[in-house]
Amino acid sequence: MTDQEAQIRKLKHALEHWKEIVLLGKKVFIWDKQWHPTALVGGSTILFTFLWLLDPSILTVVSVFGLVLTVCDYMIPTIASSFFKPEKWTSRKEQEFEELCTSIVLYKAKIELAWGRYYRMKNTNRKMYFGLTIVFLSLLAYIGCSFNNLFIAYVLVTLLMLFPGMEHKGMIRRCSEQIHNFVTELLRQGKSKLPEKKD
After folding, report:
1. What pTM, to 2 d.p., does this model score?
2. What is the DSSP letter of 169?
3. C-alpha distances in Å from residue 119, one per residue of 113, 127, 128, 138, 189
């Protein structure tokens, strides 16, 4: 068994009591219905509006979030077992569940690979590594000074919630292709405007 297969099996085991709910959640996050992205944005907006109105401390937010997760982890599998009978679990659902767990493990591997590639740049291309790091951190510092923390959190959470649907619909790929083409065209125009060296 490969390491990837072991991770998939471990994830499937961890989500065993949640599998019906996970499949329902998957449909929402990949925008199975036309109203799903609106529901995701609406849910995120309602949550952050409550946080803005109540203005709790960060410790309170983390504590309440942890409490909600703990209660859900205890209650939902018990409630779900009474709604979703084991005999209704079909081979098609099992295949969907397997594909979802595989996708999660593959995305985790991609993130780890990208992080490892970026970190290796410190040894292979130090100027690029430090340049990118300084620019990225300076941009984050500027955004942090320019916008409210709660608004930044709202934008990040909403984008994270919309990301699976955008990926599933091919929007991320199209956007990255357009950015790549734009940067390539800029570099090509920049090179063509450079004066030719005289012999």
Report:
1. 0.77
2. T
3. 10, 13, 11, 18, 31
Residue-wise pLDDT for 129-162, tens only, equals 888 899 999 999 999 899 988 999 999 999 999 9
Q: Where are the domains of the chain?
A: 3-55+90-193
Instruction: Please list, residue by residue across 92-127, b when 16 or more beta carbons sit within 10 angstroms of its beta carbon and e when fewer do.
Output: eeeebbeebbbeebeeeeeeeeeeeeeeebeeeeee
Our CA angle for 185, 188, 192, nearest 5°, is 140
What integer is the mean pLDDT of 91-114?
90
Q: Which two tokens stand for residue 90?
A: 């079909």
Give CA–CA dist 150/52, Å, rounded. Answer: 7
Under a CB-based contact definition with an 8 Å cutoff, are residues 194 and 185 in contact?
A: no
| Cα 182 to Cα 2, 40, 116, 141, distances in angstroms | 40, 31, 27, 26
Nearest to 29, CA basis, from 105, 108, 100 = 100
